[in-house]
Specification:
This protein is of the alpha+beta class. Helices cover about 35% and strands about 30% of the residues. The protein is globular and about 60 Å long.
Length: about 140
């Protein structure tokens, strides 16, 4: 995958490993395997992980300046809906479960969580904001 001079462009390259098994690679060379096989996350699960991960980065970056969490877990859930034969998700929810040490830094970090989650949702998380906005997906086929 070649570097692109456009600093706004985000991209991944997907390649087939086997039937129902795929590998995504970014420009930095990081890879992630997924698919519809045993032991792999599905694309829908990756979408939920991307939404949870995006907001988690926002929250973790800010709270970790005050204290390291003793527990940091975010559960991402949604309902699969089939309308007129077409699939989509509805009711995507992130449930943040964070705990910090019972000291000054930990209490400061804990007091920031609700505001940081809201800021991530309303302003900073590119993934959830893109999903909520309903950005169009285009495609082309090359032979």
């Amino acid at each position: 995958m070649s570097e692109n001079p456009d600093s706004t462009l985000r991209s991944v390259e997907l390649s087939r490993v086997a039937t129902g098994h795929y590998r995504a690679r970014n420009a930095a060379g990081a890879e992630l395997e997924f698919g519809q096989r045993e032991g792999l996350m599905s694309p829908v699960e990756l979408l939920l992980a991307a939404i949870a991960g995006c907001s988690s980065i926002d929250v973790d970056t800010a709270t970790s300046r005050s204290s390291e969490p003793t527990d940091f877990r975010v559960d991402a859930t949604a309902q699969k809906v089939v309308e007129d034969g077409a699939n989509r998700l509805d009711g995507i929810n992130l449930s943040f479960n964070l705990t910090f040490p019972d000291d000054d830094g930990g209490r400061k970090a804990a007091s920031m969580v609700e505001r940081l989650v809201a800021l991530s949702h309303d302003k900073y998380c590119t993934v959830s904001r893109t999903v909520e906005r309903g950005t169009a997906v285009s495609y082309d086929v090359r032979g």
